[in-house]
Amino acid sequence: MAYKDNDKKSNNLSYSDWFSFYLSIFTNNIALAQLCAKKACLNQIHNQKIEDDTEEIDNLLAEINVGLEELKKDSHKHFYLFKPDKRDIEDRLYMQNKKLKYGKVCFTLTAGRYTVGMDIPEGRYRIVAKKNSGNIYNKYYTFDEDLDAEDDDSPKIHKRLIIGDILIITDALVVELSSKKANLLQNIIRYPIGKEITLKAGNYICGDDFKSGVYDIKRIKNRGVVSFDDSGEDFGSEANELEEIKNWLFKNNDYLGISGGLIIKLVPSKNNYIK
User: What is the pLDDT of residues 169-221, one digit of tens each?
Assistant: First the structure.
């Protein structure tokens, strides 16, 4: 079963979306990003006017506000909470990329999550399957396609990717992205968050068994299934099998399961196409 973000068709952002957004703002401050994400989620629920939960939500918001104030005092930094929609993300990333220089690019991507401006440059792209099959979609709903390199009728995608978009590729699909006008000066750094660790078959909880962070999940040895986000991914050594998933976010209390004789390594993610 291919992994998907469960909320990708909804109108609201999930906790994971909010956490990823705030983590890009408060670099390496996971605790602060978690609190901001929780507050944003609760505000979202509160705005839906679910009367039965209003008192409980207000109490939780009060607790989170206390936590935010304590973190602010500890860090001696002034910050304000962004409203986490795509325009804010785009503006935030543009602040670090004021210079523009456009040119041609062509590169391939495998399974994982890629942030435009951080992993790949902004631009209008032609996206085609180069190897195997799987799903590719933009987190912000501009496209969602199943591609197959062996199928002549497999669609070719022509879309503009803007700063803050998140491109998600599933299964063993390998895609080629080409653009005649991509921003060549984007260099937002993905600071590695987490700690490298090798894991064998078993059940693991983030925060207890490994540190929270953004990881590349790499197959080291044998075959098996990696389970997370209520789904499982088959890993193997054959040409049409998955060997790596890039840039996957694990938060405290997230589950990670490994079955079979599979051995994997979690490696803190770095920038991908943009170096």
Answer: 999 999 999 999 898 876 677 788 889 999 999 999 999 999 999 999 999 99
In the sheet where 102-109 sits, what is the strand order? 102-109, 174-183, 123-131, 157-161
> Do 59 and 30 fall into the same domain?
yes
3-state secondary structure the chain: CCCCCCCCCCCCCCHHHHHHHHHHHCCCCHHHHHHHHHHHHHHHHHHCCCHHHHHHHHHHHHHHHHHHHHHHHHHCCCCCCCCCCHHHHHHHHHHCCCCCCEEEEEEEECCEEEEECCCECCEEEEEEEEECEEEEEECCCCCEEEEECCCCCCCCEEEEECCCCEEEECCCCEEEEEEEEEECCCCCCCCCCCCCEEECCEEEEECCCECCEEEEEEEEECCEEEEECCEEEEECCCCCCECEEEEEEECCCCEEEECCCCEEEEEECCCCCCC
Query: What range defines the domain where residue 34 resides?
Result: 15-77
Residue 38 in domain: yes
pLDDT (tens digit, 9 = 90+) per residue, 244-263? 999 998 999 999 999 989 99
pTM of the model: 0.64
In a domain, 189, yes or no: no
- The stretches in the chain having pLDDT less than 70 are 1-17, 20, 23-29, 43-100, 186-187, 272-275
Q: Is residue 191 assigned to a domain? A: no
In a domain, 254, yes or no: yes
Give me the number of domains the chain comprises: 3
